Amino acid sequence: MRVIGLVKPCRVSAGVVYVDSMLGWLSRWLRMIGVKAVYSGSFSDEELATVDGLVVTRDRGLYSRRTGDTLLLLTDNHLHWLTAMVMVLNVKPTIGDNSLCPICGGRLIKVNSMEAVGKVPMNVVRRNPTLLKCESCGRYYWVGSHHRGIERTLNIVKELASNGGIEQSGPECLIYIKMKPK
Ligand SMILES: [Zn+2]
């Protein structure tokens, strides 16, 4: 087991990330930056303990039972959660073509905004010739006023990650990672 106080990039199983309960915020942000995140609502503790892939949890018990790649986030700082993930997965915290539906993780496709008439505010249709639509749940997305807030958050994360990680602020380590030997 490797315990780290300062999060450094490392190689974990690629593919799907399993996000434990109480980390719903993190699963939404991971999807926005293109990481396939499965939120644990549909998993039992037993399944999460043995699933193959990276599991992210706030549960010390689950962390100690796991034998595969696991990240334990004890800190309450949401930006540190996302920074730790960005560093561990070695991904860019940006919104782009890879972005997934934050709500369900479905693929987003570009559609003519006229098809969304009656489903999104009319001024959105007028201002945007195209919208993004989730293939799975059918939600529509567009660049709006909330976008600046998202960019601000991602810029902070980018800066934390490029400055070499997250310094521990107290005596106790608040982020732990263990990796299966490759
Ligand atoms: Zn969706």
Care to describe what's here?
The chain has a domain at 17-95 and 146-178. Helix 1 packs across helix 4 (78-89) and helix 4 crosses helix 6 (146-162). It has 182 residues and is an alpha/beta fold. It contains six helices and eight strands; from the N terminus they run βαβαβαβαβαββαβ. The chain starts with 16 loop residues before the first strand and ends with a strand. It has helices at residues 24-32, 45-50, 60-65, 78-89, 122-127, 146-162; strands spanning 17-19, 37-39, 54-57, 70-73, 108-112, 130-134, 140-141, 175-178. A five-stranded mixed beta sheet has the order 2-1-3-4-8. Strands 5-6-7 form a three-stranded antiparallel beta sheet, with no helix packed on it. The model is unreliable at 1-6 (pLDDT under 50). The longest helix has 17 residues, at 146-162. Strand 6 and strand 7 (140-141) form a beta hairpin. Zinc ion binds at residues 101, 103-104, 106, 134, 136-137, 139.
